[in-house]
Amino acid sequence: MSISVEMFYLITFLYLIHYNLDNFNFTNKTNAKFIISQCKKASSFKEGIIDKLITTVPVLFNLENEEELLLSRFNSDLVNQALLLTEVWKKTATSGGKISLDYLYISNAPSKNFNTVFSQKAEQLVEISQKIFSTSDINFSVYSSKELLELYQQQKSNRNTIEFKDRPLSTEFDNYGIGYIGTVKLGNYKEFLTAENGGIRDDLFESNIRHFQGSVDVNKRIRESIENPSNEDFWWLNNGITIIAEEPKEVGKKLSIENIQIVNGLQTSYSIYNYHNLDMDDNRSVLVKVIINTNKETTDHIIASTNSQNPVSATLLRATEPVQRHLELFFLNEGYYYDRRKNYYKNQGKPATKIFSIQLTAQAVQSIAYNDPHTARSRPTSLLKTEANYNKIFDPKKDFKPMFNCCLIYKKGHSYWLKHSDSKEKSKTSNFKLHLGMIISRIYFKKTNVSFEDISIIDLSLITQNIFEEAINFLANSIDNYLLANSEKNLINIAKSKEFTDYLLEQLNNKFK
Questions:
Q1: Do 206 and 303 form a contact (C-beta atoms < 8 A)?
Q2: Where do the H-state alpha helices sit in 238-341?
Q3: Please, are residues 465 and 433 in contact by the beta-carbon 8 Å criterion?
Q4: Going edge to edge, which strands form the sheet with 241-251?
Q5: What is each CA distance from 350 to 125, 198, 201, 215, 362, in whole angstroms?
Q6: Contacts with 260 (C-beta within 8 Å, 6 or more apart), sequence order
Q7: Is the pTM of this model over 0.85?
Q8: Each residue of 14-69: pLDDT tens digit?
Q9: Cα Rg for the chain, rounded, in angstroms?
Q10: Helix ranges, 183-278 (H)
Q11: 3-state DSSP assignment of residue 42
Q12: Strands 254-264 and 285-292, how do they pair?
Protein backbone atom coordinates (compact mmCIF):
# COMPACT_ATOMS: atom_id res chain seq x y z
CA MET A 1 0.00 0.00 0.00
CA SER A 2 1.33 3.45 -0.95
CA ILE A 3 0.20 6.58 0.85
CA SER A 4 1.12 9.99 -0.59
CA VAL A 5 2.21 12.92 1.50
CA GLU A 6 -0.83 14.84 0.27
CA MET A 7 -3.20 12.35 1.89
CA PHE A 8 -1.23 11.62 5.05
CA TYR A 9 0.62 14.43 6.80
CA LEU A 10 2.45 13.88 10.03
CA ILE A 11 3.58 16.92 11.97
CA THR A 12 5.71 16.96 15.08
CA PHE A 13 5.35 19.89 17.44
CA LEU A 14 8.14 20.28 20.01
CA TYR A 15 10.50 22.95 21.21
CA LEU A 16 12.89 22.05 18.43
CA ILE A 17 14.78 24.13 15.88
CA HIS A 18 15.09 22.59 12.43
CA TYR A 19 14.64 19.11 13.90
CA ASN A 20 18.01 19.29 15.65
CA LEU A 21 17.27 16.69 18.32
CA ASP A 22 20.85 16.46 19.52
CA ASN A 23 20.67 19.96 20.96
CA PHE A 24 17.42 19.31 22.76
CA ASN A 25 17.49 18.11 26.35
CA PHE A 26 14.68 15.61 26.98
CA THR A 27 13.60 15.48 30.64
CA ASN A 28 10.65 14.32 32.70
CA LYS A 29 9.11 17.74 32.02
CA THR A 30 9.16 17.33 28.24
CA ASN A 31 5.75 17.36 26.56
CA ALA A 32 5.72 15.83 23.08
CA LYS A 33 2.55 16.41 21.10
CA PHE A 34 2.06 14.68 17.75
CA ILE A 35 -0.62 15.44 15.18
CA ILE A 36 -1.67 13.16 12.34
CA SER A 37 -4.11 14.86 9.99
CA GLN A 38 -6.18 13.90 6.98
CA CYS A 39 -7.38 16.80 4.82
CA LYS A 40 -9.96 15.95 2.16
CA LYS A 41 -11.99 17.96 -0.33
CA ALA A 42 -14.79 15.36 -0.24
CA SER A 43 -18.22 16.65 0.81
CA SER A 44 -18.66 13.92 3.45
CA PHE A 45 -16.67 11.92 5.98
CA LYS A 46 -15.49 8.51 4.72
CA GLU A 47 -14.90 5.40 6.84
CA GLY A 48 -12.17 4.35 4.40
CA ILE A 49 -9.90 7.10 5.67
CA ILE A 50 -9.96 5.62 9.17
CA ASP A 51 -9.54 2.09 7.74
CA LYS A 52 -6.27 3.18 6.11
CA LEU A 53 -5.03 4.66 9.37
CA ILE A 54 -5.97 1.51 11.28
CA THR A 55 -3.89 -0.64 8.92
CA THR A 56 -1.05 1.86 8.41
CA VAL A 57 -0.25 3.23 11.87
CA PRO A 58 0.75 -0.15 13.42
CA VAL A 59 3.20 -0.72 10.55
CA LEU A 60 4.55 2.82 10.35
CA PHE A 61 5.26 3.05 14.08
CA ASN A 62 6.42 -0.49 14.75
CA LEU A 63 9.81 0.05 16.38
CA GLU A 64 11.10 -3.26 14.97
CA ASN A 65 10.54 -2.23 11.35
CA GLU A 66 13.62 -1.02 9.52
CA GLU A 67 13.68 2.09 7.34
CA GLU A 68 14.13 -0.02 4.18
CA LEU A 69 10.93 -1.91 4.92
CA LEU A 70 9.00 1.32 5.43
CA LEU A 71 10.38 2.82 2.21
CA SER A 72 9.17 -0.22 0.28
CA ARG A 73 5.60 0.61 1.32
CA PHE A 74 5.40 4.33 1.93
CA ASN A 75 6.37 7.66 0.43
CA SER A 76 9.91 8.71 1.45
CA ASP A 77 8.79 12.09 2.81
CA LEU A 78 6.22 10.34 4.98
CA VAL A 79 8.81 7.85 6.22
CA ASN A 80 11.17 10.69 7.17
CA GLN A 81 8.44 12.35 9.21
CA ALA A 82 7.49 9.04 10.82
CA LEU A 83 11.12 8.33 11.79
CA LEU A 84 11.37 11.80 13.32
CA LEU A 85 8.23 11.19 15.35
CA THR A 86 9.52 7.78 16.43
CA GLU A 87 12.84 9.23 17.55
CA VAL A 88 11.16 12.01 19.54
CA TRP A 89 8.69 9.48 20.96
CA LYS A 90 11.49 7.20 22.20
CA LYS A 91 13.53 10.04 23.70
CA THR A 92 10.48 11.48 25.46
CA ALA A 93 9.38 8.09 26.80
CA THR A 94 12.83 7.12 28.14
CA SER A 95 13.22 10.50 29.85
CA GLY A 96 9.86 10.16 31.60
CA GLY A 97 8.16 12.96 29.66
CA LYS A 98 4.54 13.11 28.51
CA ILE A 99 3.31 12.02 25.08
CA SER A 100 0.03 12.91 23.37
CA LEU A 101 -1.33 12.25 19.91
CA ASP A 102 -4.18 13.96 18.05
CA TYR A 103 -5.82 12.59 14.93
CA LEU A 104 -7.51 15.31 12.86
CA TYR A 105 -9.88 14.38 10.05
CA ILE A 106 -10.76 17.48 8.05
CA SER A 107 -13.33 17.40 5.25
CA ASN A 108 -15.17 19.84 3.01
CA ALA A 109 -18.45 18.48 4.39
CA PRO A 110 -20.91 21.21 5.40
CA SER A 111 -21.30 19.74 8.91
CA LYS A 112 -20.16 16.89 11.15
CA ASN A 113 -22.51 14.17 9.99
CA PHE A 114 -21.48 10.51 10.10
CA ASN A 115 -22.89 7.13 11.14
CA THR A 116 -22.28 4.87 14.13
CA VAL A 117 -19.82 2.67 12.22
CA PHE A 118 -17.63 5.72 11.56
CA SER A 119 -17.56 6.53 15.28
CA GLN A 120 -16.79 2.92 16.19
CA LYS A 121 -13.85 2.81 13.79
CA ALA A 122 -12.52 6.09 15.21
CA GLU A 123 -12.64 4.53 18.70
CA GLN A 124 -10.83 1.48 17.35
CA LEU A 125 -8.05 3.66 15.93
CA VAL A 126 -7.65 5.41 19.28
CA GLU A 127 -7.45 2.09 21.14
CA ILE A 128 -4.82 0.74 18.71
CA SER A 129 -2.76 3.92 19.06
CA GLN A 130 -2.94 3.84 22.85
CA LYS A 131 -1.35 0.40 22.82
CA ILE A 132 1.34 1.41 20.31
CA PHE A 133 2.39 4.65 22.03
CA SER A 134 1.69 3.48 25.60
CA THR A 135 -0.32 6.58 26.45
CA SER A 136 -3.99 7.27 27.05
CA ASP A 137 -3.74 10.86 25.86
CA ILE A 138 -4.90 10.16 22.31
CA ASN A 139 -7.82 11.93 20.64
CA PHE A 140 -9.66 11.75 17.33
CA SER A 141 -11.29 15.00 16.16
CA VAL A 142 -13.44 15.75 13.14
CA TYR A 143 -13.66 19.15 11.44
CA SER A 144 -16.19 20.07 8.78
CA SER A 145 -16.08 23.27 6.72
CA LYS A 146 -18.31 24.84 9.39
CA GLU A 147 -15.75 24.33 12.17
CA LEU A 148 -12.88 25.38 9.89
CA LEU A 149 -14.67 28.62 9.06
CA GLU A 150 -15.29 29.32 12.73
CA LEU A 151 -11.63 28.64 13.54
CA TYR A 152 -10.45 30.86 10.69
CA GLN A 153 -12.63 33.73 11.82
CA GLN A 154 -11.65 33.55 15.47
CA GLN A 155 -9.99 36.82 16.28
CA LYS A 156 -6.37 36.29 17.19
CA SER A 157 -5.13 37.70 20.44
CA ASN A 158 -3.63 41.10 19.75
CA ARG A 159 -2.98 42.63 23.14
CA ASN A 160 -1.23 45.94 22.86
CA THR A 161 -0.60 49.01 24.97
CA ILE A 162 -1.59 52.53 24.07
CA GLU A 163 0.03 55.44 25.91
CA PHE A 164 -2.17 58.48 26.48
CA LYS A 165 -0.88 62.02 26.83
CA ASP A 166 -2.46 62.24 30.26
CA ARG A 167 -4.14 59.56 32.31
CA PRO A 168 -7.32 58.67 30.38
CA LEU A 169 -10.72 59.44 31.83
CA SER A 170 -12.51 56.21 32.68
CA THR A 171 -16.28 56.05 32.87
CA GLU A 172 -18.73 53.26 33.59
CA PHE A 173 -22.27 52.86 32.28
CA ASP A 174 -24.26 51.01 34.93
CA ASN A 175 -23.28 47.34 34.64
CA TYR A 176 -22.97 47.37 30.87
CA GLY A 177 -19.33 48.29 30.48
CA ILE A 178 -16.53 50.76 30.90
CA GLY A 179 -14.90 53.25 28.56
CA TYR A 180 -11.70 55.30 28.43
CA ILE A 181 -11.31 58.71 26.80
CA GLY A 182 -8.15 60.70 26.27
CA THR A 183 -5.67 62.14 23.82
CA VAL A 184 -2.67 60.26 22.43
CA LYS A 185 0.40 61.96 20.95
CA LEU A 186 0.62 61.37 17.20
CA GLY A 187 3.98 59.62 17.55
CA ASN A 188 2.66 57.27 20.24
CA TYR A 189 -0.42 56.49 18.20
CA LYS A 190 1.70 55.67 15.16
CA GLU A 191 3.76 53.33 17.37
CA PHE A 192 0.52 51.68 18.51
CA LEU A 193 -0.42 51.05 14.85
CA THR A 194 2.97 49.72 13.75
CA ALA A 195 3.69 45.98 13.51
CA GLU A 196 7.03 44.36 14.27
CA ASN A 197 7.89 44.31 10.55
CA GLY A 198 7.33 48.05 10.30
CA GLY A 199 4.03 47.79 8.42
CA ILE A 200 0.66 48.92 9.67
CA ARG A 201 -1.27 46.43 11.78
CA ASP A 202 -4.11 45.81 9.38
CA ASP A 203 -5.66 43.24 11.75
CA LEU A 204 -6.75 46.13 13.98
CA PHE A 205 -9.19 47.28 11.29
CA GLU A 206 -10.93 43.96 10.54
CA SER A 207 -14.26 45.25 11.90
CA ASN A 208 -14.08 48.57 10.05
CA ILE A 209 -16.64 48.97 7.27
CA ARG A 210 -14.24 50.80 4.91
CA HIS A 211 -10.58 50.54 4.10
CA PHE A 212 -8.24 53.44 3.38
CA GLN A 213 -9.76 55.65 0.69
CA GLY A 214 -6.49 57.12 -0.56
CA SER A 215 -6.19 60.71 -1.71
CA VAL A 216 -9.81 61.77 -1.28
CA ASP A 217 -10.39 65.33 -0.10
CA VAL A 218 -10.81 64.49 3.58
CA ASN A 219 -7.58 62.49 3.63
CA LYS A 220 -5.72 65.26 1.83
CA ARG A 221 -6.81 67.66 4.57
CA ILE A 222 -5.77 65.21 7.30
CA ARG A 223 -2.38 64.78 5.63
CA GLU A 224 -1.90 68.53 5.38
CA SER A 225 -2.69 69.00 9.08
CA ILE A 226 -0.19 66.22 9.97
CA GLU A 227 2.67 67.48 7.81
CA ASN A 228 2.21 71.17 8.58
CA PRO A 229 2.16 71.79 12.35
CA SER A 230 0.38 74.94 13.50
CA ASN A 231 -0.84 76.52 16.71
CA GLU A 232 -3.90 74.27 16.53
CA ASP A 233 -3.79 70.78 18.02
CA PHE A 234 -4.49 67.91 15.62
CA TRP A 235 -7.48 66.62 17.55
CA TRP A 236 -9.14 70.04 17.37
CA LEU A 237 -9.24 69.72 13.58
CA ASN A 238 -9.92 66.02 13.01
CA ASN A 239 -12.33 63.32 14.11
CA GLY A 240 -11.12 60.93 16.75
CA ILE A 241 -10.60 57.19 16.97
CA THR A 242 -13.07 54.66 18.36
CA ILE A 243 -11.60 51.38 19.62
CA ILE A 244 -13.49 48.34 20.88
CA ALA A 245 -11.45 46.03 23.11
CA GLU A 246 -11.46 43.65 26.06
CA GLU A 247 -9.58 43.02 29.32
CA PRO A 248 -8.22 46.50 30.09
CA LYS A 249 -5.26 46.95 32.41
CA GLU A 250 -4.50 50.55 33.29
CA VAL A 251 -1.13 51.62 34.65
CA GLY A 252 -0.78 55.38 34.86
CA LYS A 253 -0.99 56.84 31.37
CA LYS A 254 -0.77 53.43 29.70
CA LEU A 255 -3.75 51.24 28.87
CA SER A 256 -3.13 47.60 27.93
CA ILE A 257 -6.06 46.07 26.00
CA GLU A 258 -6.90 42.76 24.30
CA ASN A 259 -8.76 41.90 21.04
CA ILE A 260 -8.44 45.41 19.68
CA GLN A 261 -10.63 46.60 16.83
CA ILE A 262 -10.55 50.15 15.48
CA VAL A 263 -14.14 50.55 14.28
CA ASN A 264 -14.04 54.24 13.43
CA GLY A 265 -11.13 56.44 12.45
CA LEU A 266 -9.45 54.25 9.86
CA GLN A 267 -8.82 57.19 7.51
CA THR A 268 -7.28 59.20 10.34
CA SER A 269 -5.25 56.20 11.54
CA TYR A 270 -3.82 55.41 8.11
CA SER A 271 -3.03 59.07 7.52
CA ILE A 272 -1.11 59.29 10.81
CA TYR A 273 0.76 56.07 10.00
CA ASN A 274 1.56 57.18 6.42
CA TYR A 275 2.49 60.81 7.02
CA HIS A 276 3.66 61.36 10.58
CA ASN A 277 7.45 61.33 10.98
CA LEU A 278 7.36 59.62 14.41
CA ASP A 279 8.81 62.72 16.05
CA MET A 280 8.14 62.20 19.77
CA ASP A 281 8.77 65.90 20.41
CA ASP A 282 5.63 66.66 18.40
CA ASN A 283 3.15 67.44 21.18
CA ARG A 284 0.04 67.25 18.97
CA SER A 285 -2.43 64.49 19.75
CA VAL A 286 -5.43 62.55 18.46
CA LEU A 287 -8.59 61.93 20.48
CA VAL A 288 -9.05 58.24 21.33
CA LYS A 289 -11.97 56.54 23.01
CA VAL A 290 -11.74 52.90 24.05
CA ILE A 291 -14.95 50.96 24.70
CA ILE A 292 -14.62 47.69 26.59
CA ASN A 293 -17.18 45.36 25.11
CA THR A 294 -17.64 41.66 24.23
CA ASN A 295 -21.24 41.77 22.99
CA LYS A 296 -21.45 41.37 19.19
CA GLU A 297 -24.80 43.18 18.93
CA THR A 298 -23.48 46.15 20.88
CA THR A 299 -20.38 46.22 18.69
CA ASP A 300 -22.54 46.36 15.56
CA HIS A 301 -24.55 49.23 17.05
CA ILE A 302 -21.34 51.12 17.86
CA ILE A 303 -20.02 50.61 14.32
CA ALA A 304 -23.27 51.83 12.76
CA SER A 305 -23.57 54.83 15.10
CA THR A 306 -19.97 56.03 14.92
CA ASN A 307 -20.08 55.85 11.13
CA SER A 308 -23.39 57.68 10.78
CA GLN A 309 -21.85 61.11 11.31
CA ASN A 310 -20.40 61.00 7.78
CA PRO A 311 -22.28 59.79 4.68
CA VAL A 312 -22.08 55.99 4.61
CA SER A 313 -24.14 53.83 2.28
CA ALA A 314 -26.42 51.13 3.65
CA THR A 315 -24.26 48.66 1.75
CA LEU A 316 -21.08 49.49 3.69
CA LEU A 317 -22.82 49.12 7.05
CA ARG A 318 -23.40 45.46 6.14
CA ALA A 319 -19.66 44.81 5.74
CA THR A 320 -19.09 43.24 9.16
CA GLU A 321 -22.00 40.77 9.00
CA PRO A 322 -21.12 37.04 9.02
CA VAL A 323 -22.53 36.35 5.54
CA GLN A 324 -20.28 39.07 4.11
CA ARG A 325 -17.20 37.59 5.79
CA HIS A 326 -18.13 34.13 4.50
CA LEU A 327 -18.56 35.45 0.96
CA GLU A 328 -15.15 37.09 1.15
CA LEU A 329 -13.57 33.75 2.03
CA PHE A 330 -15.51 31.98 -0.74
CA PHE A 331 -14.33 34.46 -3.38
CA LEU A 332 -10.74 34.16 -2.10
CA ASN A 333 -10.93 30.40 -2.44
CA GLU A 334 -12.00 30.87 -6.07
CA GLY A 335 -9.14 33.27 -6.80
CA TYR A 336 -11.21 36.47 -6.68
CA TYR A 337 -11.69 39.29 -4.17
CA TYR A 338 -14.95 40.26 -2.50
CA ASP A 339 -14.39 43.83 -1.40
CA ARG A 340 -16.72 43.95 1.59
CA ARG A 341 -14.51 46.69 3.04
CA LYS A 342 -14.29 49.30 0.34
CA ASN A 343 -10.81 49.63 -1.23
CA TYR A 344 -9.24 46.87 0.90
CA TYR A 345 -8.06 44.79 -2.06
CA LYS A 346 -7.33 47.83 -4.21
CA ASN A 347 -4.93 49.01 -1.50
CA GLN A 348 -3.29 45.58 -1.61
CA GLY A 349 -2.67 45.97 -5.34
CA LYS A 350 -5.07 43.25 -6.46
CA PRO A 351 -6.24 43.46 -10.11
CA ALA A 352 -9.44 45.46 -10.52
CA THR A 353 -10.84 42.82 -12.90
CA LYS A 354 -10.96 40.34 -10.02
CA ILE A 355 -12.49 42.61 -7.38
CA PHE A 356 -16.25 42.64 -6.71
CA SER A 357 -17.93 45.07 -4.34
CA ILE A 358 -20.96 44.28 -2.19
CA GLN A 359 -23.07 46.58 -4.37
CA LEU A 360 -22.00 45.06 -7.69
CA THR A 361 -22.51 41.54 -6.34
CA ALA A 362 -26.01 42.47 -5.18
CA GLN A 363 -26.82 44.00 -8.57
CA ALA A 364 -25.55 40.94 -10.44
CA VAL A 365 -27.52 38.52 -8.26
CA GLN A 366 -30.68 40.64 -8.41
CA SER A 367 -30.43 40.83 -12.22
CA ILE A 368 -29.36 37.32 -13.15
CA ALA A 369 -30.77 35.12 -10.38
CA TYR A 370 -34.00 37.03 -9.82
CA ASN A 371 -34.86 38.47 -13.29
CA ASP A 372 -34.76 41.99 -11.88
CA PRO A 373 -32.16 44.09 -13.73
CA HIS A 374 -34.43 47.15 -13.70
CA THR A 375 -34.41 47.41 -9.90
CA ALA A 376 -30.66 46.76 -9.78
CA ARG A 377 -30.19 49.51 -12.40
CA SER A 378 -32.57 52.07 -10.90
CA ARG A 379 -31.69 51.66 -7.20
CA PRO A 380 -28.05 50.54 -7.00
CA THR A 381 -27.20 52.26 -3.70
CA SER A 382 -30.51 51.59 -1.95
CA LEU A 383 -30.92 48.03 -3.23
CA LEU A 384 -29.92 46.61 0.14
CA LYS A 385 -31.67 49.05 2.43
CA THR A 386 -34.69 46.83 3.07
CA GLU A 387 -34.08 43.81 5.27
CA ALA A 388 -36.23 41.58 3.06
CA ASN A 389 -34.32 42.35 -0.12
CA TYR A 390 -30.94 42.05 1.60
CA ASN A 391 -31.85 38.66 3.06
CA LYS A 392 -33.09 37.48 -0.33
CA ILE A 393 -29.87 38.41 -2.13
CA PHE A 394 -27.45 37.41 0.62
CA ASP A 395 -29.22 34.41 2.07
CA PRO A 396 -26.61 32.58 4.20
CA LYS A 397 -28.56 29.33 3.79
CA LYS A 398 -28.02 29.35 0.03
CA ASP A 399 -24.98 28.14 -1.84
CA PHE A 400 -22.48 30.94 -2.52
CA LYS A 401 -21.47 29.49 -5.89
CA PRO A 402 -24.47 30.99 -7.79
CA MET A 403 -23.74 34.42 -6.27
CA PHE A 404 -20.14 34.13 -7.38
CA ASN A 405 -21.16 32.95 -10.87
CA CYS A 406 -23.61 35.85 -11.26
CA CYS A 407 -20.66 38.22 -10.76
CA LEU A 408 -18.56 36.39 -13.34
CA ILE A 409 -21.41 36.29 -15.88
CA TYR A 410 -21.90 40.04 -15.51
CA LYS A 411 -18.14 40.71 -15.65
CA LYS A 412 -17.66 38.56 -18.73
CA GLY A 413 -20.58 40.20 -20.53
CA HIS A 414 -19.24 43.64 -19.63
CA SER A 415 -15.77 42.70 -20.88
CA TYR A 416 -17.20 41.61 -24.24
CA TRP A 417 -19.32 44.77 -24.36
CA LEU A 418 -16.25 47.01 -23.89
CA LYS A 419 -14.62 45.38 -26.93
CA HIS A 420 -17.76 45.33 -29.04
CA SER A 421 -17.07 46.83 -32.47
CA ASP A 422 -20.61 48.05 -33.28
CA SER A 423 -20.60 51.57 -31.84
CA LYS A 424 -24.35 52.04 -32.41
CA GLU A 425 -25.21 48.89 -30.45
CA LYS A 426 -22.79 49.89 -27.69
CA SER A 427 -24.39 53.31 -27.38
CA LYS A 428 -27.89 51.85 -27.39
CA THR A 429 -27.14 49.21 -24.75
CA SER A 430 -24.88 51.20 -22.44
CA ASN A 431 -27.62 51.44 -19.78
CA PHE A 432 -28.56 47.76 -20.12
CA LYS A 433 -25.43 45.85 -19.07
CA LEU A 434 -27.30 44.23 -16.17
CA HIS A 435 -30.04 43.19 -18.60
CA LEU A 436 -27.31 41.82 -20.85
CA GLY A 437 -26.05 39.56 -18.04
CA MET A 438 -29.56 38.18 -17.56
CA ILE A 439 -29.95 37.52 -21.30
CA ILE A 440 -26.51 35.85 -21.60
CA SER A 441 -27.40 33.36 -18.86
CA ARG A 442 -30.75 32.58 -20.53
CA ILE A 443 -29.15 32.02 -23.92
CA TYR A 444 -26.55 29.75 -22.28
CA PHE A 445 -29.29 27.53 -20.83
CA LYS A 446 -31.68 28.08 -23.77
CA LYS A 447 -34.56 28.71 -21.39
CA THR A 448 -36.11 31.66 -19.57
CA ASN A 449 -36.67 30.15 -16.14
CA VAL A 450 -33.14 29.76 -14.79
CA SER A 451 -32.88 28.65 -11.17
CA PHE A 452 -30.29 29.37 -8.51
CA GLU A 453 -29.16 25.75 -8.85
CA ASP A 454 -28.77 26.16 -12.62
CA ILE A 455 -26.45 29.12 -12.13
CA SER A 456 -24.27 27.13 -9.72
CA ILE A 457 -23.32 24.63 -12.46
CA ILE A 458 -22.76 27.08 -15.32
CA ASP A 459 -19.45 26.62 -17.15
CA LEU A 460 -18.10 30.14 -17.62
CA SER A 461 -15.68 28.99 -20.30
CA LEU A 462 -18.68 28.21 -22.53
CA ILE A 463 -19.91 31.80 -22.42
CA THR A 464 -18.19 32.69 -25.67
CA GLN A 465 -18.05 35.62 -28.04
CA ASN A 466 -20.83 33.94 -30.06
CA ILE A 467 -23.17 33.85 -27.05
CA PHE A 468 -22.38 37.49 -26.35
CA GLU A 469 -23.08 38.49 -29.97
CA GLU A 470 -26.39 36.65 -29.87
CA ALA A 471 -27.29 38.31 -26.57
CA ILE A 472 -26.40 41.89 -27.56
CA ASN A 473 -28.17 41.56 -30.91
CA PHE A 474 -31.25 40.24 -29.12
CA LEU A 475 -31.08 43.11 -26.60
CA ALA A 476 -30.60 45.80 -29.25
CA ASN A 477 -33.49 44.47 -31.37
CA SER A 478 -35.73 44.23 -28.31
CA ILE A 479 -34.95 47.84 -27.40
CA ASP A 480 -35.81 48.98 -30.94
CA ASN A 481 -39.08 47.07 -31.01
CA TYR A 482 -40.08 48.24 -27.55
CA LEU A 483 -39.40 51.88 -28.44
CA LEU A 484 -41.52 51.55 -31.58
CA ALA A 485 -44.48 50.61 -29.41
CA ASN A 486 -43.59 53.11 -26.66
CA SER A 487 -42.28 56.16 -28.50
CA GLU A 488 -42.83 58.44 -25.51
CA LYS A 489 -40.15 56.63 -23.49
CA ASN A 490 -36.38 56.99 -23.61
CA LEU A 491 -33.52 54.53 -23.09
CA ILE A 492 -32.80 55.48 -19.49
CA ASN A 493 -36.45 55.18 -18.50
CA ILE A 494 -36.94 51.75 -20.01
CA ALA A 495 -33.68 50.48 -18.47
CA LYS A 496 -35.31 51.16 -15.09
CA SER A 497 -38.69 49.80 -16.12
CA LYS A 498 -40.19 46.50 -14.97
CA GLU A 499 -42.38 46.55 -18.07
CA PHE A 500 -39.32 46.35 -20.30
CA THR A 501 -37.85 43.47 -18.29
CA ASP A 502 -41.16 41.64 -18.63
CA TYR A 503 -41.06 42.35 -22.36
CA LEU A 504 -37.52 40.88 -22.59
CA LEU A 505 -38.58 37.73 -20.74
CA GLU A 506 -41.59 37.36 -23.03
CA GLN A 507 -39.35 37.68 -26.09
CA LEU A 508 -36.95 35.12 -24.61
CA ASN A 509 -39.86 32.74 -24.08
CA ASN A 510 -40.77 33.11 -27.75
CA LYS A 511 -37.14 32.59 -28.75
CA PHE A 512 -36.84 29.27 -26.93
CA LYS A 513 -40.19 27.78 -27.99
A1: no
A2: 266-275, 296-306, 322-333
A3: no
A4: 160-163, 254-264, 241-251, 285-292, 177-185, 169-173
A5: 46, 21, 19, 18, 21
A6: 158, 159, 160, 204, 243, 244, 245
A7: no
A8: 334 344 566 678 888 888 889 888 888 888 899 999 999 999 999 999 988 888 88
A9: 30
A10: 186-193, 217-227, 234-237, 266-275
A11: coil
A12: unpaired
